Task: structure prediction
Amino acid sequence: MNIACLCAFGLEGVVRHELHTLGYSETQTENGRVNLGGDFSDGARLNFCLRAADRVVLPLGKFPASTFDELYEGARRAEFPFPKNARIMVSGKSVKSKLSAFEVCASVTKKALIDRACASLGVSSLSG
Result:
């Protein structure tokens, strides 16, 4: 599983150093993030231990989308074991995208994830 440690631009080296200190030596640095492999327990540990990272996230996927239909289909393909008591929250940002209305992007993505979770659990809704 991929883990992304998000940080302010310029702090990637500090986050990478913190990760190495915690025993995570296999990292990839990009602008504003440091990526590494791990599992859910690593994600929880890093979320608690890292000081320079803004947040630790477990990306569900990465795909191009120039329409809301492509966004929905890409998000619906996300591979994630949704538990029955799943709580789905969507957050993100748009940089140089045709889909710049973030509220609509978040709504479309959340609907796709809920549809995926319902299909994988064999239920019609996630509520109650």
Observations:
- The chain has four helices and four strands.
- The longest strand covers residues 2-6.
